[in-house]
Amino acid sequence: MEVTFLGTSSGVPTKSRNVSSVALRLTQRGEIWLFDCGEGTQHQLLRSDLRTSQLKKIFITHMHGDHVFGLMGLLASCGLGADAKDIELFGPPGIEPYLKSCMKYSYTYFPYGVTIKTVEPGLVYEDEEFTVTCELLKHRVTAYGYRVSEKNKAGIFDVEKAKKAGIPSGPLYGKLKAGETITLEDGKTFSGVDFCGPTEIGRKFVYCTDTVFCENAIALAEDADVLIHEATFAHQDASMAFEKMHSTTTMAAQVALAAQVKKLIMTHFSPRYAPGNPIQMKDLLSEARAIFPETILAYDFFRYDIPRRRDKKI
Predict the structure, then answer these.
(1) Residue range 19-39, pLDDT digits in tens
(2) Which of 19, 229, 269, 288 has CB 3.0 to 4.6 Å from 38, enough for a Cys bridge?
(3) Domains parsed from the chain with CATH numbers
(4) For residues 85 and 204, what is the distance between their CA atoms, to the nearest angstrom?
């Protein structure tokens, strides 16, 4: 699981930062899941090493333009390729009529399947490897945060050890792989724990924007390997954060601390902190690290490989 930041500015793009979009690359299955799609996202994809042919799912947090204005262009361009594949689109109320209106008035047809699903708090998607859930955040419009949870995988089964123990191959091996205890005809019992390596703990990716500090963000981010959280304003600009329903650096850090995440990556920075402003980006980082040391400032095309955790045998 690898994260690539395609846009890290809030509201409007700057010379060095595009507006919101984050790509989650699932390397084990050759897929890309996109979170938000601000204007110019397809240009950012072209400048990265990501391939739109691997794009399978798009998750939109809310309907503000800096998070959706790149959606129609990206989907239309995907349809021009010879290898266009179906895409699932998840988003808040309004996502379906918005996209259909864009298609209608631009006379655009997608020569591939685009499935649109309006999300509600709770389970959004599940397959054999991943679950995606969402929760309402606290913003001026309906906005959702998303959590992608990779399912745990059983440790590697030691076939040779099982053979040496005199356990016949077949259904019994399946039970041992599942961690069950088996009993042979001679009365000997064996536990699957003794024949399997450490459980591979699934990784957890959480994306929270746009929002002011809220308890739902903490619940969504609990024990996440990486929390991507908006940090539009510096701490001293908290009054603007509350007025516009955005987060400060310290709010993002407080969420990370309360949720006991492994890594916080802040994004969605106000263009006001450009060179010349007495508050610089390094100051935003210092503010957050004073509360949560494991904090990183994202920048466009920054990549973060989510490390695996491995469980010990019980």
Answers:
(1) 999 999 999 899 999 999 999
(2) 19
(3) 2-153+199-310 (3.60.15.10), 159-195 (no CATH)
(4) 26
